[in-house]
Design brief:
The complex is a heterodimer of chains A (222) and B (788). With 222 residues, chain A is mainly alpha-helical. Helix content of chain A is 67%, strand content 0%. Chain A starts with 16 loop residues before the first helix and ends in an 11-residue tail after the last helix. Classes of the chains: A mainly alpha (222), B mainly beta (788).
Chain lengths: 222, 788
């Protein structure tokens, strides 16, 4: 049980034992929930805000990145952005509980990082060193790494008793060596899915904010 | 003294070993060659080490050695060095002495460690020499001296007040973050390394070494500005005397952001809102990077005073704002700036470029400023009243016409033609020889509407509206201050029928006769003239109390914004000159042309011989003076000086010579003499009249009539009758007391023998003077002479 044990001293001995027990249980439940809410509120504020703002920032940059990517790939760039790839993580967040969903966000984000790195490496070979695409890719990659650490920090603050998310560098399925066309298709798929994933993350964080990081009610029973 | 020569002893020792010859000779020669070669290499190597260091750290190659070598020492602290002898040295610790270049350190500061080593403790100051030596006393072997270099300095100062800023470049916040800090201003005497550390997000830790040790800022380049990430910044300073680290500045990196100002700032005027301007702008950076709040300020064109919109109204994520309660038809300048929305985060950007716009016109909200002035008509001895009108204070637009109504006449329109933006009074009507009560009403009209009506009532007799009291002026910091007291309402005999509503302060320039005025409310008892007054110009200041549009009796005083020395000296001339007095008169330019109030005149006079100049100070309203007690027939020089509070001007010298005699003196003398003679003559005449008889008897004695004598029978003409018988016989001249002679002619007549006497008194009679001596004596003489 999360929270502290609390024994009200004002229980009158004339009350029956079941009602007293019920009152005791109610008090314990309210107090514990309040404690949890308070602790979550304290831990929610800044890390959650940071996560949400960073997610929106990277999402916005990823939209521009895709635009830049398409412009840098030459003709038929619209076509290969519609392709799919089984190696690239899906943007859908799984889980029922907030902790599960946040864990899913963290793990998917972690799994995207190597792909972003791969795309950056491939495009470094394909583009000129001064290409704006490389700068934008690098920025998204760097910010995504920061986001991963922020999400991890948020998870640990909100759910300190749950195992921490796995750090970056865990096992991720990477595609085999690709030719240039495959690289272009692969890059676009990664960026598109990543953009969608970030949109889902932003939505998830807003939900988390409303479900988990709420303030205790003004008039409490005790 | 040696600071590290190659040890000859070690070389000698290594080369001293020898081996038998024959088969071993070649080998021994080779060995010897090798040894020599190695020794030479060794020597060269040691020489290289010594050239970059002042002491060896390893084995003793000198007889003395000092530890530590080349230390950094802190000023103000004690430093202890140890001098030790080589094992093979013949000296002991008691033979060691410490010294600087020219000064031996007292033995009291020594501390003997053992028989071959001794410490010295010295307090390091800024004056402490940089080289410290130790030697065996009284030894002349240079190997017995050793020295070290002292690097004096201070440990590094702890950096404080660390702050950072990252500027916007293009549409992003730059990844160059510039941080600055404070340290105490103390010179870094020894080499100090300062490094700036920045850690955040993907940039685990970036270090930037600050090259210039005295510089208190540095810029670290990140891979990307870590928006919405925590950052840590700190500074480390290190030198040989210590290492310090600043407090770690741990915050969200967005705190360092300083964006560009908002751009496309535009002010929009809307005709239906004459007191409002709509300000629009664009944010300089997308809100995913930095969410911004704004601040707006505005001012009237030409004003230096900005009005800021309260931050509560604009500290939001907005891109437009409506300024309200502005003045219509007024040019306003607006600026906007922005900052990160979180309190305590970010820096305010610079103010944006000006957005300049004029508010729309509105109908005038206040009455026009109506006044009158009375001038003397040129060429005629008559007065002309001009009805003047200025735009309303709240004209809210360009006044195009004034509507004027005089007495019961219909309204007339007077067009306003102004080429510039100056607020000149418009001459609406001229009234020749105004008499009686005059009513004037004026309305000002712009393109939107017309103003409230202004009216002016000029009474026939102003005395029923009492004037203000104690009108005074003062020049105060380049402005003319006018003060007065409220009118004494009982001064006019009975209180005025109307209440005092306001005052009109009027000023007329003495330079060109230009008039201007301003209105003050009834509670004002002192005010500054708001017009453009000139220095050194005479102004007639008048205060008119206004009793419900009725013009009251004015009080007028002259005034100067700033007085100067007189522009023209007075001209002096002589009016009257005597032998010991003279009257001098002088004239001055009219007060209206003066540059200040004349406070006095000073009259100077002196002779050429005298060294003292006589000065007489006279009141300002004096234009003549009578000099008395002057010396006659003397040349005098005179001049007059007019003075204001700011200076004076002196007339040219005027010369005059006093008369020798006083006027009329000669005439008096002559007249006096004549009168005296006349009186004398009169006196003599009176005397003669009274003393005539005695005078006559003396001067004209009585001569008896010969007819009465016995010879009376003689007739005087006997001789004539008896001419043949008579002949002149003798003539006797008788002299009298007066210069008169008479001739007595005697005739001797033969017949009778009687002489005839003819006395000629012709001469006497002719003179009219009676003989004083009777002719008896003459006769007696005659008788005597003629006696037969």
């Amino acid at each position: 049980m999360i929270g502290h044990m609390y024994f009200p001293l004002l229980l009158q001995p004339t009350k029956s034992f079941p009602s007293a027990l019920l009152s005791l249980l109610l008090v314990m439940a309210v107090h514990s929930s309040r404690t949890v809410s308070l602790s979550r509120s304290q831990n929610c504020g800044i890390p959650l805000q940071q996560s949400l703002k960073l997610t929106r920032l990277i999402h916005k940059e990823s939209v521009e990145l895709i635009r830049t990517y398409k412009a840098s790939q030459g003709a038929m760039s619209e076509l290969f952005c519609k392709s799919s790839s089984s190696e690239v993580p899906q943007p859908k967040i799984s889980g029922l509980e907030p902790s599960e969903r946040l864990l899913s966000v963290s793990s998917i984000l972690q799994s995207f990082l190597p792909h972003l790195q791969r795309v950056l490496e491939q495009q470094t070979d394909l583009q000129s060193p001064s290409s704006r695409l490389l700068t934008e890719l690098s920025n998204v990659r760097n910010r995504s790494t920061s986001l991963a650490s922020v999400i991890s920090c948020l998870y640990q603050n909100l759910f300190p008793n749950l195992p921490a998310p796995e750090p970056a560098g865990g096992p991720t399925q990477m595609p085999p060596p690709q030719n240039i066309f495959q690289q272009k298709v692969y890059g676009c798929v990664v960026l598109r899915r990543f953009k969608d994933f970030l949109l889902n993350v932003a939505r998830e964080l807003r939900t988390l904010k409303s479900r988990v990081c709420r303030m205790p009610p003004a008039n409490t029973l005790f | 003294m040696q600071f590290g020569n190659v040890s000859r002893r070690s070389v000698r020792q290594s080369s001293s070993s020898g081996r038998p010859c024959s088969n071993y000779q070649a080998r021994s020669l080779l060995d010897m060659a090798m040894v020599l070669y190695i020794g030479l290499l060794h020597r060269l190597l040691l020489a290289c080490l010594v050239s970059s260091s002042l002491a060896f750290s390893a084995e003793f190659t000198f007889d003395v050695n000092i530890l530590p070598h080349s230390p950094a020492v802190e000023i103000g602290k004690n430093f202890t060095a140890t001098c030790s002898l080589a094992n093979a040295s013949e000296a002991t610790a008691d033979d060691l002495i410490w010294y600087f270049s020219s000064k031996i350190i007292p033995r009291e500061q020594y501390n003997k460690i053992n028989t071959s080593a001794v410490n010295v403790t010295i307090t390091i100051t800024s004056e402490t020499p940089s080289r410290l030596f130790c030697r065996v006393n009284k030894s002349k072997d240079t190997k017995d001296t050793y020295g070290i270099e002292l690097h004096k300095g201070y440990p590094p100062e702890r950096p404080e007040n660390l702050s950072c800023v990252a500027l916007q470049v293009d549409k992003r916040i730059s990844n160059n973050v510039t941080c600055s800090w404070d340290t105490r201003k103390r010179a870094n005497l020894i080499e100090t390394k300062t490094s700036l550390f920045f850690s955040s997000g993907s940039d685990e830790e970036k270090e930037k070494e600050i090259k210039d040790a005295d510089k208190n800022s540095g810029t670290v380049t990140l891979s990307i500005f870590p928006h919405h990430m925590n950052a840590k910044v700190w500074v480390v300073s290190e030198n040989k005397l210590g290492k310090v680290k600043s407090d770690v500045l741990e915050t969200e990196a967005d705190r360092f952001a300083k964006t560009n100002p908002p751009f496309n700032v535009v002010a929009i005027s809307e005709k239906q809102f004459p007191e409002s301007l709509l300000i629009n702008w664009s944010q300089p950076i997308e809100k995913v990077y930095v969410k911004l709040i704004y601040q707006i300020r505005y001012c009237k064109h030409g004003s230096q005073t900005w009005s800021e919109i309260p931050l509560d109204d604009t500290a939001r994520e907005i891109h437009s704002f409506r300024l309200q309660y502005l003045r219509p038809y007024t040019l306003y300048i607006t600026q906007v700036r922005c900052k990160m929305y979180r309190e305590g985060f970010g820096y305010w950007s610079d103010w944006s470029r000006n957005a300049t716009k004029m508010t729309p016109e509105d109908k005038p909200k206040s009455k026009p400023d109506l006044w009158r002035t009375i001038n003397n008509t040129e060429g005629r001895n008559r007065k002309t009243m001009h009805i003047l009108c200025k735009d309303p204070e709240l004209s809210n637009g360009r006044i195009r016409i004034f509507k004027v109504k005089m007495q019961s006449l219909p309204w007339k329109e007077v067009a306003v033609n102004r080429t510039g933006s100056e607020d000149l009074a418009v001459d609406l009507r001229q009234i020749e020889d105004p008499r009686g009560i005059i009513f004037v009403e004026v309305i000002a009209c712009n393109s939107v509407g017309q103003s409230p009506k202004a009216s002016l009532k000029i009474p026939r007799n102003q005395h029923q509206f009492p004037p203000v009291n104690k009108l005074m002026w003062k020049s105060d910091k380049g402005q003319l201050l006018i003060e007065w007291q409220t009118p004494d309402v009982s001064a006019g005999g009975s209180p005025p029928m109307h209440n005092l509503t306001e005052y009109v302060v009027q000023w007329v320039s003495g330079k060109d006769g230009k008039m201007d005025w301003q209105r003050e409310n009834r509670s004002t008892l002192k005010t500054f003239i708001r017009g453009d007054l000139e220095n050194f110009i005479y102004y007639n200041i008048s205060v008119y109390p206004i009793y419900s549009d009725w013009i009251g009796q004015p009080v007028t005083i002259p005034a100067y914004l700033e007085q100067g020395a007189p522009s023209h000296p007075p001209s002096i001339k002589l009016e009257y000159l005597g032998s010991n007095n003279a009257k001098l008169v002088w004239t001055d330019i009219p007060q209206e042309k003066q540059t200040g109030f004349i406070v006095n005149y000073t009259l100077y006079y002196f002779t050429l011989n005298e060294s003292d100049v006589q000065a007489i100070i006279l009141p300002a309203n004096t234009y003549s003076y009578h000099l008395m007690t002057l010396s006659s027939n003397t040349k005098y020089l005179t001049k007059v000086k007019s003075s204001t509070i700011k200076g004076s001007a002196t007339s040219p010298e005027h010369m005059f010579i006093t008369a020798k005699y006083a006027p009329g003196e000669v005439k008096g003398i002559v007249v006096g003499a004549c009168l005296g003679f006349l009186f004398l003559l009169l006196g003599i005449t009176i005397l003669c009249f009274y003393k005539w008889q005695s005078i006559e008897s003396k001067w004209w004695p009585t001569i008896p009539n010969p007819e009465n004598s016995r010879i009376g029978t003689w007739t005087p003409d006997f001789h004539l009758k008896n001419k043949a018988r008579c002949r002149p016989y003798a003539s006797v001249q008788a002299h009298y007391s007066l210069p008169v002679t008479s001739t007595l002619i005697g005739y001797h007549c033969l017949a009778s023998g009687v002489g005839a006497l003819k006395v000629q008194f012709s001469e006497l009679r002719a003179l009219g003077v009676a003989a004083s001596t009777p002719p008896n004596a003459a006769l007696q003489r005659f008788n005597a002479s003629t006696a037969p």
